[in-house]
Amino acid sequence: MEVKSIVLGVEGMTCNSCVQTIEQHVGRLNGIHNIKVSLEDKNAVVIYDSKLQTPATLQEAIYDMGFDATLADSNPQPVLLDTIFLTIPTQSSLTSKQICSTLLKNKGVVDVKMSSDQKTAVVTFIPSIANGKQVMQMVPGVDLSISAPEVTPGTCESSSWSQASSLVLRLKVDGMTCHSCTSTIEGKIGKLQGIQRIKVSLDNQEAVVVYQPHLITAEEIKHQIEAAGFTASFKKQPKPLKLSAIDLERLRNTQTKGSETALKETSSMNDTKTVVFRIDGMHCSSCVLNIQSTISALPSVTSIFVSLEKKSAIINYNPNLITIEVLRRAIEAVSPETFKVSLPEEYDSVALYPTLVSTLQSPHPALKDASQPLTQVVVINIEGMTCNSCVQSIEGVISQKAGVKSIHVSLTNHNGTIEYDPLQTCPEDLRSAIEDMGFDASLPAQPSPEVQLESHRTEPSSQVSPAHLVRQETKTVSKCYVQVTGMTCASCVANIERNLRREDGIHSILVALMAGKAEVRYNPAVIHPSAIAELIRELGFGATVMENCGEGDGILELVVRGMTCASCVHKIESTLMKTNGVLYCSVALATNKAHIKYDPEIIGPRDVIQVVKDLGFTTSLVKKDRSASHLDHKQEIRQWKRSFVVSLVFCIPVMGLMIYMMVMDSQLSDAHAHHNMSSEEMEALHSSMVLEYQLVPGLSVMNFLSFLLCVPVQMFGGWHFYIQAYKAVKHKTANMDVLIVLATTIAFVYSLVVLLVAMAEKAKVNPVTFFDTPPMLFVFISLGRWLEHVAKGKTSEALARLISLQATEATIVTLGPDNVLLSEEQVDVELVQRGDIVKVIPGGKFPVDGRVIEGHSMVDESLITGEAMPVTKKPGNTVIAGSINQNGSLLISATHVGADTTLSQIVKLVEEAQTSKAPIQQFADKLSGYFVPCIVAVSVITLFAWIIIGFVDFEIVEKYFLGYNKSISAAEVIIRFAFQASITVLCIACPCSLGLATPTAVMVGTGVGAQNGILIKGGEPLEMAHKVKVVVFDKTGTITHGTPEVTQVKFLVEGNQLPHNKMLAIVGTAESNSEHPLGAAITKYCKKELDAETLGTCTDFQVVPGCGISCKVTNIEGLLYRKDKMVEENNIKNMTLVKIEENVEESVQPALIIDAELPATRTSQKYCVLIGNREWMSRNGLVVKNEVDKAMMEHERRGRTAVLAAVDGVLCGLIAIADTVKPEAELAVHTLKSMGLEVVLMTGDNSKTARSIASQVGITKVFAEVLPSHKVAKVKQLQDEGKRVAMVGDGINDSPALAMANVGIAIGTGTDVAIEAADVVLIRDDLMDVVASIDLSRKTVKRIRINFVFALIYNLIGVPIAAGVFLPIGLVLQPWMGSAAMAASSVSVVLSSLLLKMYQKPSPEKLEFRARGQMRHKSPSEISVHIGIDETGTGSPKLSLMDRIINYSRASINSLFSDKRSVNSVVLSEPDKHSLLVGDFGDDDDTAL
Known about the structure:
Layout: E1 3-11, H1 16-27, E2 32-38, E3 43-49, H2 55-64, E4 68-71, E5 77-78, E6 82-87, H3 96-105, E7 109-114, E8 120-125, H4 132-136, E9 145-146, E10 167-174, H5 179-190, E11 195-201, E12 206-211, H6 218-227, E13 231-236, H7 245-267, E14 273-280, H8 285-296, E15 301-307, E16 312-317, H9 324-332, E17 340-342, E18 376-383, H10 388-399, E19 404-410, E20 415-420, H11 427-436, E21 440-442, H12 466-475, E22 478-485, H13 490-501, E23 506-512, E24 517-522, H14 529-538, E25 542-546, E26 554-561, H15 566-578, E27 582-588, E28 593-598, H16 605-614, E29 618-621, H17 634-675, H18 679-688, E30 694-696, E31 699-700, H19 701-717, H20 719-730, H21 736-761, H22 773-795, H23 797-804, E32 809-815, E33 821-828, E34 837-840, E35 849-854, E36 857-860, H24 862-865, E37 871-873, E38 878-879, E39 884-885, E40 890-896, H25 902-915, H26 919-952, H27 954-960, H28 970-988, H29 991-1011, E41 1014-1016, H30 1019-1024, E42 1030-1034, H31 1035-1039, E43 1040-1051, H32 1060-1071, H33 1077-1090, E44 1097-1104, E45 1108-1114, H34 1117-1138, H35 1142-1147, ...
Parallel strand pairs: 42-49, 42-51, 49-50, 50-54, 51-52, 52-53
Antiparallel strand pairs: 1-3, 1-4, 1-5, 2-3, 6-8, 6-9, 7-8, 10-12, 10-13, 11-12, 14-16, 14-17, 15-16, 18-20, 18-21, 19-20, 22-24, 22-25, 23-24, 26-28, 26-29, 27-28, 30-31, 32-33, 32-34, 34-40, 35-38, 35-40, 36-37, 36-39, 41-53, 43-48, 44-45, 45-46, 46-47, 47-48
Helix pairs in contact: 17-19, 17-22, 19-21, 19-22, 20-21, 21-22, 21-28, 22-29, 22-43, 26-27, 26-28, 26-29, 28-42, 28-43, 29-42, 29-43, 32-33, 42-43
């Protein structure tokens, strides 16, 4: 209940009667507690209930009375409330309900609650209006007295209220660089009085604090964080206390009673009790100290003794202040919260659920998590509900009842789950209330004390019957979908899932990265979807609840055979709709198809098909097209090939005719020139030629044949062009097709008209026609289009191959106990459901992604990951859909099916990539848009220009018009000439080559990339990569292998004390149980050295995070015996070869097995092993010698991890482990630098390691200790400097930066291809592919530019020639020449692009040869290291100018004295002098200096 106070300005009051009128009128309104009107100040102060009134309604009420009201302060202030507990006398004349209503009628009383026994009333009032005494006298005739709430055993009422009274504060904390900062803040703030919980997040740079405001303020918390050296600011103001009256009263009692109990405690120490706890999970003395210091600080504990050996704690405590259960949980809450605390046998009789005496009774509420808010849950059986409106009416009425926190009624289970406050109501009241509504309600047979503590810790299961928990869970789980934005990679998914699983009321969460969606199963009694979305938003992502989301529903399309009439349809639909899990069903009789929506969590596609089959119909899936036919361009290739062939068949005769005519014409003109024939002779000669023979006057054989050959081409060859042109014109655009159609149609129609006119005129001389233009044009253009589609088809081959990988069928098996195979069936791959067990035989494809549950095999994943070697698969390994099983039979459990499989995601990604346009291509498309109208305009201008020129000066036309004949009128000649020129312009202009310039090159480029293991997602990254100026490498997994390997083992004891093989066997066995990557590296190394698949036995394995492990090792003798046997056999073989005498042979027994007996008599020895860091050794009482410490420091300086191993209390080995640099890294970095790029290393690792790795690969600029979230900022920073950045990462933690970079290159991720945010994915884990991808981009862009040059130059030169600009110098083009030239330009562009197919990756051998002598390791002085996100680098030690001069001269003198140096001072082999000066003199190679 929110009581607020507001000041309203009131104008227009004249006297006290106005004041009284306002006070009386407004005071009578519902929800007004008090109003005070001042005539002098012209205002009214109103105290009101914010749920019933708002400032606006108050303003309106005063306004309605004829006064002007204004809001003096727009923010109403909360009013502090007070609470009093009143005992109701047993012989009261009034009932408790009457007392409540009487109290509520009084001014100042806000709320009255009755306890369940009707003996106590809790009254909340406004202290400024009424006080406790007045409240007691408010009910006439009833003597009310103030009481303290009693704590009755068994009611659970005593569970403390500190949780309910706490506030949540969010602070932004700047200046944290690593996890030690977070633990500093958590440690310091966590100790303050009044702090319940604190969680500091390094990634989000924030702290979330739960605190008690009556003990500490938000300002004080902020001040304390700042005192620790960080800057803090409030993200959100702490939410105001929303406390019930009871909570407030309890808090008050805490303060007063606490002090009293403290006094009592000091006076009577003798009423303490002792309890013994068993504590598991303590590893060393620091655990003991931790528990003792934390628990002894509790005011209720008088003494504590913890024993590491006995794993026990003896505690003296005051039972009035604290209970055993609270103590137990307090110990479990001690950092690192991994202790398991239990009572020994003799204490088991003690109920672990005693009266939890409030910890707030102690003056220091030091026990944080022990305190829990109080609710109880009851399940009431309800009969008589028929539909959802019954459910809603019950929920609506009961949720209004006092004390009911939440209610969930289930129609299917015929019950209601109600969460209620036992102080205000009881199950019987709730049951009778439901019966009053006309339903039959009953309580369960055995009402167990159904206590649900909403806890952040899982309660011991003994407290609540497991059956009850299960029942409650199954009955109150709902599902919702949340749209999540801002996720970039798998770590975002893990972050959301991890954090939400911790929240109360959430049963499970599944986040899909690609779909950007979370599916949450939750308990609606505890949490609502909007709250879930808010939790995700608090993690820094965008989240909205998806209403009526059918996204999680499966959709099934079936073909149903055997239906005859509408009743069959009804039968199928009604049966399916009754089936649990089917959400929607629609069956069409006409098409025999059924469309079904179902919930995949309840029912699967096979179950649905079975239901239909049981009804007597045959059914099958609607087959999906899996052939990738839309990608291989087969249809288009076929279409254009046909078009080309048709045009060519008719074009060849036309060309033959034309060539013949040209030859004849030239002979005629020669004859005309040399023999001075008269025009009559000319005419006679002309008509005597076979082709010029007139069939009818005006129609020659030539023209007739041309016409016959042109018509089919125009009709069939040009069919596609006409359709496309029509569509373009309809959409008010002009493309290439419009231009072609214009040119051919005008040429054809013009020729036809001219011919008809000649026939009509019975002309003696045959007119010049352009029937040759359309066939020629169509031939060249359809050839161009055909070649273009062939090229496109080639580029999509990789994708088509991927799609064809998908299996079509799967063998599903049913397993009995002990994995016995009961049955198996072949089903369509679409019918495989999540969780199915699928059998894959040798040679078979994996139909879905899954996890191996039985069998061993080798699997060929080369087509998906590009990895040539087959991969071993054993139980627990994951398999990818589309990979091929090689030798063993496997049973897999399906994890991702249908569109969720890795293969489907890759296919989707590549499809999207090939349809995306490069920016340069968008420019070309834009250009084409303007190009066509311009050319049409030029063509029209040409037409009119020549007509005008012809009429003005006929001689020009006469001179240059080839087919001119005197018999034709001058006007006709001019018009023909003009037409010829304008048609030639149309023919020659070609936006086609412009349009082809980019896509063909991009297509071929991406195709070539894919063949070389470089997946480029579309034109944009391909084009962007050549502009890159900075390449940023992530360290782990990119420059380095990403998995630690043992680089050196130093034996610290003599071989005769502990043979080296034996030590390796012991250490390898000890680490074989470790989950840690370092442990795995040691085990791998030992197995390799000992040449063994299995090691000994490890028992009593204990791991202490951050320190090391301890364990006992046995059964290694057999291993050593085998190894020695092999050594011995080898020795014998070698000696036989060298022919050494036998007596020598016997004495050459290896020293290792002097004391090794034969296996028969061998007894197994047990070794105590410790492996870990210095701290772990010193904790266990082992002294680390100085030289060992120095060796460790040297390794650490080089970025390695040094681990010590001790056997039976003796330090015996130092193992150096490092993440080794990939062999090709140095060459790749050098090559990138030689290409003119700046190379940067960015890592979350420490600066030592980063510097060491950088010096090995030759990188000089390093950003170390950068968090994943800061990598983005770093990339942005580089971009802000105006540089184009390529980021190379291994995908998971780098993905935000990959997305931010201009070009993100993910390396070696293989199956993560679809998930990551990169633009380029290198399928092979090879850094030389980074070089190749940038090189390929440069080559492609160069090719695109060459293509543009071809296209543009050709148009710029061709159009003026066609228009007749160069007529004076004798350059004239016929239309067919124009079309040939045009087609040539398109074909030349396509061929130019196809030349990219010849692209070869730069070979490492050539690059190495070129770089020989130039590559060298950088010295530390040359590397600038920047820590975190700030720009200032710690860099190399800075030297003053004087120091440099001195060092330089010293080095010069040294070089003079050292003869060797002066003689051999070859520049290349010598390290750079500067590096020697500033270098770290500890380095091996620098010792000479």
